[in-house]
Amino acid sequence: MDIFKFGGASVKDADGVKNLANIVRDYKKGELLIVISAMGKITNKLEELTKAYLSQSDDTHAIFDEIKHFHFNIIEELFQGNANPVYNEVANTFVEIDWLIEDEPDSNSDYIYDQIVSIGEVVSTKIVAAWLNETNNKALWVDARNYIQTDNTYREGKVDWEKTNQIIQKEMVPLIAKNIIVTQGFIGGTSENYTTTLGREGSDYSAAIFASCLNAAALTIWKDVPGVLNADPKWFDETEKIPQLSYHDAIELTYYGATVIHPKTIKPLQNKGIPLFVRSFIQPEGSGTAITKDSNPLPVPSFIFKVNQALISIFPKDYSFIIEENLSNIFELFHQHRIKINTMLNSAISFSVSVDDNEEKVKKLIESLSNQFTVKYNKGLELVTIRYYNQQTIDRVTVDKDILLEVKSRHTCQMVMKNKA
Ligand code: ASP
Ligand code: MG
Fold first, then answer.
1. What is the pTM of this model?
2. What is d(CA 86, CA 59) in angstroms, rounded to the nearest whole number?
3. Which residue out of 36, 200, 206 has the highest number of ligand 1 atoms within 8 Å of its CB and is therefore the one to mutate?
4. Residue 326, Cα to own-chain centre: how many angstroms?
5. How are beta strands 412-419 and 401-408 bridged, if at all?
6. CA 7 – ligand 2 centroid, Å
7. Candidate CATH numbers 2.30.22.10, 3.40.350.10, 3.30.2130.10, 3.40.1010.20; the one for domain 302-419
8. Domain 8-217 CATH superfamily
9. H helices within 158-263, ranges in order?
10. What are 278's strand-pairing partners?
11. What pLDDT, in 10s, does the model give residues 314-361?
């Protein structure tokens, strides 16, 4: 069997839902499980709603109304009115949130976030399942929260693989034999049946979990690009599709910030040798990118840009060397402040790192580093990572730039830079 994952962009309107139905048209029961994200940019809107509710803003109800209208418009367009049972199912899902936001927030804000934001996926899957049933495919809506079992780290649920695997084997396998399954990405459930989310953009990861536990033949992620590109079209005019990637290269690219696939997606697939295809829902006949074990493709140079970087340079006040002890103190502080290091370099008495410039967090980190170290920093920088670099590719991205930091390994070059004054 296959797993298909459709992201928000693929189901952003009624036409998107119809297009999805066309893509899965020829599949029969027993052959397919479909994982779907919230429609369009609804997760952002639901985050806004959560914020408004937590701060008891006057906008709370207006934001929620906007979310409801967005979905009801799609339902009305698909089903020519509101007579289909899905209309009431979706209305009932919204009522639960109406009740929640009626009272003042009295629990943990991350918990509240998950209860609210998760409904994006609940509603999108209800609409898609209803549409498949209305058209050519019998589909069964399944609640992912009963299968993806997590701890209670809200907003970042940690998957209990053993439990998840057991329950999928025991209870989902028989369902799949009789149906095409439609379920949610991004959400899971705790042992006490509370909803958790797996972190933003986590639907790819959900799809990989299902693929792994079901020993799927393949996972296909349907995107609005023809496959994995060698650069983000947001930053680059000329991009090239990479036809084949190894798991290893895919992990490296996502680790350095390529946003095409969620970084946690590859490992479960690699562990079971399940191929991952990235294909275009706009041109479903295209071959996309195949990410597999033994592909030994010609390396295509890939570029990953991160903007809004801060370069932090750390010098021991007593001029001691940057060796194990200093490094472990430094790493401990980064860990405590939950700041991810994007690239780093050390010399005898200095240690430099580039991080996403989250002002609040970086300020606190620098304060705590300052006890032991002299700290200097630069803001407003770009970090470029080139995988399979050569001089030509470096020249291409460094025109009119000053390079503040450069780190090279055999296959990867990272440069922190700013525009020339
Ligand atoms: N809807 C969630 C998000 O936008 C999960 C996902 O799209 O993967 O973050
Ligand atoms: Mg999304």
1. 0.91
2. 27
3. 200
4. 34
5. antiparallel
6. 6
7. 3.30.2130.10
8. Acetylglutamate kinase-like (3.40.1160.10)
9. 161-167, 173-178, 203-213, 247-255
10. 221, 289
11. 999 999 888 888 999 999 999 999 899 999 999 999 999 999 999 999
